[in-house]
Every structure is written in C-alpha cells, then in structure tokens.
Amino acid sequence: MSNIFLPLSKEQSVEVSIIHGGRTTVPTKYVVQTPIPGHDLLDIPCYSFLIENKSQNKRILYDLGLMKAWKEKQPPAILNQIEAANAVMDIKSDVTDQLVDAGIQLGSINAVIWSHHHVDHTGDPSLFPPSTSLIVGPGFKTNNTTFPGYPKNPDSLVADDAFHGREIIELDFSTAASIGGYPAIDYFGDGSFYILQSKGHTHDHISALARTSNSKFIFLGGDVAHHPGEYRPTELLSLPNDIEVPLPTNDNTPFLSVCPASVLETIHPGKKEGKDYRTTPFYQSNSLMNVSLPDAEASIEKMQAFDASTDVFTIIAHDTSLLDVLPFFPKTITDWDKAGYKSLGAWRFLKDFEKAIAEIKTEDTQ
Ligand SMILES: [Zn+2]
Ligand SMILES: [Zn+2]
C-alpha cells in the first residue's frame, strides 16, 4: 500500500448528498473471518448517493438502497436468503419518495448506477421514468444470475421491471486509465466523477470517486467492505493513542469515557499472529461474502490508500458509524472536509466492540 495519486482537477466538481435507503441486518460471521465477541450482528443502513453536476445540469444516483415492495417483487431466491438470515428489512420510503418530497423530479435523474446487483443496493428503478438509464458493471449483462431479470429469467437475482423501457449501460473498463490501481472511467468527461472497477465482492462490482472541490474527493466504496474494521487501521492511517469515541466505562455507565488505544490490543483478532493492533485492520473479509476473496482483498487494499489520504473521505454502503455524524439528504456532504466529518467518523466503528471492551474492563477490576 502506498500514497495515492489523485487525478488533477479540470475545475469541475459535483455536489454529493447521502440518502438513507432503508436498513437491514446480517450476521457478522457471514461477513468477516473472526468476529470480535459480542459483535454478532451488523445492523446496517443502506446508503444511496445523489450526485449533481451543476455545470452540465445532470443528476445521477449511485445505488438506491432497498425497495419498499421487496415482498412482492424480489425473486424467490432472494426472499429465501432474507428468511434464512432472519434479516430485518426496514424501509420507510423508497429513494424516489425522498427525492420527490424534496422537490426533485424523477425525470431530472439522468442515470442510476448500481454498485452491484444485490437487493440492498438496487432499490426500485421501475419507479423512475424510462429516460433514466441504468448503469451496471462489467459482466452484468452476460451473467445469467443478473440479466435478464426475474421472472423472465428464473435464475435472475434481480427484478426484471428494473430494465423495462430504459437504456442499460454496461461499462467497459478494457481501455480505462487507472486511479489508485482501479480501472477508472471519467463519467462526465470533466474530471468531477469517476466510476471505478472494484472486483471481488461480486462479478459486477463498481465503486466511485466524486470530486467535491479541486483537491477533495468522496470515495463511494459500495460493498468493497461491509464494516470499517475491514480497512482500518493501516500503516498509513494508524490508530491514535487515545480514541475519542464513546465507549463503556468500568461502572457500566455507557458512552462516557475516552478509550486508550491499548485496550483494543487485547480484543484484536490479529493479536495471536503478532500483528500490530495499531496498523492492522480488525477484520478480514471472508469467502462467503465474496465471489473472489483474492480480488476482494486487492480491492480493499486499494481502498485503504484512498482512505489514508486527507484529501479523500471514504464511505462504504453500510457504514453504521456515520449515521449520527453526517447530515442526510436533502442536505449535502460536499463540504465534508471543512465540516470535519472524516475525523469525526473515522474511529466511531470501535463502538461496535464495546461488549468485548467491557469484558476486559470487568476482568481488570476483579
Ligand atoms: Zn453486496
Ligand atoms: Zn450491500
């Protein structure tokens, strides 16, 4: 992993808003190799992002979160997965409802980008007019599990009405330049928004890099990782000595103390292998969650270099720890660097380990 070279500015940038696209749950053991005791369930929001290129008068969305009509429209294979995982599916409103409520006409959305075909990202494109095109990653249209959709194609994991009447654009990265090791397409042609091929989680996975000012970016990771502990800390973004996140105190008064980083050494799954807890991610992704674990690990390693840059704010699709840090749509997060969201949010995921930390503290006092 090395320092990242970010693309030079062509004086254009985009506005970025984060939209809460519903909430679901997944057992942590489905996602990472050695869950920290007490961190048994990922209770995860599903983020969608509105990207506005004002100079070109264009609006696109990166992901749509969950769909309200999932019981009626999702293929039986998906319904079975939801039932088998005993997953919560909590969707108050489709992304389209939220856009309309904020006065944004759906006809003004030029395209929806699917980071990949999973139900917690695809939302309900059928609610958009046919003028909204759908952008998918390489291999989407040639893979029988993704295209055409269900019920036209009984093997598909995607509802077919997403495609009706609209242009489906499958990206081709074969001649693409590279940003931070990912093949990259300059989507608007003005350096304001890049779509990146980030293989591993699925055959069709893509991430994005949104320029929010001349030198600042938001990296939209999608499902490159499902928990920040899969990509933090690293040698380039090491754990601070004192972590200013709410953690339990000895007397069980919740959320008051500042945690000395050394407490985290004991609970780090890499401790047995002699890994440095200050520079080694807490979690490793597992093969259950990825069609290719080596590709997924390579994608995570590339993302770590972005994440370590003070010029880049990384947001994966399901980062619960940012829920109470970021202002949500219709507000924007374009000024993330001035607002300090990155430093406010970077270590808040450690709150997920509070049960394991409380155990240590209880042992210390006995
Ligand atoms: Zn996924
Ligand atoms: Zn996901």
TrEMBL record:
Listed CDD domains: metallo-hydrolase-like_MBL-fold
Molecular functions per Gene Ontology: hydrolase activity; metal ion binding
Highest taxon of source: Eukaryota
Gene3D superfamilies: Ribonuclease Z/Hydroxyacylglutathione hydrolase-like
InterPro entries linked: MBL_superfamily_lactonases (IPR051013), Metallo-B-lactamas (IPR001279), RibonucZ/Hydroxyglut_hydro (IPR036866)
Metallo-beta-lactamase domain: residues covered: 45-124
Chain coiled-coil ranges: none
SUPFAM superfamilies: Metallo-hydrolase/oxidoreductase
Keywords from the named record: Hydrolase, Metal-binding, Zinc
Family according to the record: Belongs to the metallo-beta-lactamase superfamily.
Name the record gives this protein: Metallo-beta-lactamase domain-containing protein
Species name: Talaromyces proteolyticus
Upper taxonomic lineage: Eukaryota, Fungi, Dikarya, Ascomycota, Pezizomycotina
